[in-house]
Every structure is written in C-alpha cells, then in structure tokens.
Design brief:
Blueprint (H helix, E strand, L loop, with lengths): L1 H44 L3 H13 L7 H13 L3 H13 L7 H12 L4 H13 L7 H13 L3 H4 L1
Helix pairs in contact: 1-2, 2-3, 3-4, 4-5, 5-6, 6-7
C-alpha cells in the first residue's frame, strides 16, 4: 500500500514538473516573440521595408499582435511602395481576396505585376493565371504562358502543372 502511494506521488510530481516546464517554455517563447515584435516595430517605423513587410505579415496572421487585415494592408503598402516584392505580392493577395480592403482584382493584378517584374514566382504564377483566363486583365495567352514558364524555372510547382 505504501509503495502504491509512493508511486502515485512520484507520478503526480512528474506530471506537475512537466506542466511547469511546458509553462516556462511557453513563457520564454512569448517573451522572445514580444521582443522580436518590438524590434520589428522600431525598424518598420524607421522605414525598413523588410521590417514593414514582416509587421504586415504579423498582423495578417495574428502573430504577436491581434489579427487585423486592414493594419496588415497598411504595413504591406508602406513596404510595397519601397519596392519590396514580397509585400507587393502580399498586397496583391489582399486585393485579390478582399482582405483588409475592398476586393479589387484589377488592383491586385497591378501589385502582382510589380512583384512579378522582380521575379517573384508566386506573383508570376497568379498573374499568369489571370492573363490566361482574362480575369480582370486583358486575356493574353502568350503573356500567361511566359509568366508560368518564368515561375516554373524557379521551381514553382503550381506553375508546372
């Protein structure tokens, strides 16, 4: 009987110890995330285009900040205006799907074009689709095919289908 109680006590301590360890790991991760978010905000406010894009992504996905598509668009637009291809694609994506802005596929195509002109494969793929189907841009099979080939050369699997 004493052995059974000892085993139960040891198991309880092990479970509590594991839970405490998990809590500490979570707290450490949360502290690192808060520090990284603060660092990114400082850099973004100072005009760093990559940091602006990353802050936009944090708002888009709700990582370290409350999810807010309109705020994501605001940061993406600042970064995209400085020529960041990732932000140009992300801004196009927001316009294409109506996340944080009114859906406007013509405006989406404009931002996808800016990113595609810099060789951003995902933008080349979606713009290739839009050109091939005539979705809110003039139908142009040759341009659509050219964009698919450019994206495929970079390894984009969707454009290879």
């Amino acid at each position: 009987m004493v052995q059974r109680k000892t085993v139960a006590a040891v198991l309880c301590l092990a479970v509590l110890s594991g839970a405490a360890t998990l809590w500490l790991v979570h707290q450490h991760k949360a502290a690192r995330e808060r520090a990284e978010t603060a660092r990114l905000f400082r850099a973004a406010k100072a005009g760093d285009a990559r940091a602006q894009y990353r802050i936009g992504a944090r708002y888009y996905y709700g990582t370290g900040v409350p999810q807010n598509y309109a705020e994501a668009v605001r940061w993406y637009r600042q970064s995209a205006g400085q020529g960041n291809a990732s932000a140009q694609y992300a801004l196009g994506y927001c316009y294409y799907h109506g996340c944080g802005v009114a859906q406007d596929k013509s405006e989406a195509a404009r931002w996808f074009r800016k990113a595609a002109d810099q060789g951003y494969a995902w933008a080349e793929t979606i713009l290739g689709y839009m050109c091939s189907t005539g979705e809110d841009v003039p139908r142009d099979y040759a341009e659509g095919t050219r964009l698919f080939h450019k994206a495929a050369e970079q390894g984009d699997e969707l454009s290879q289908a």
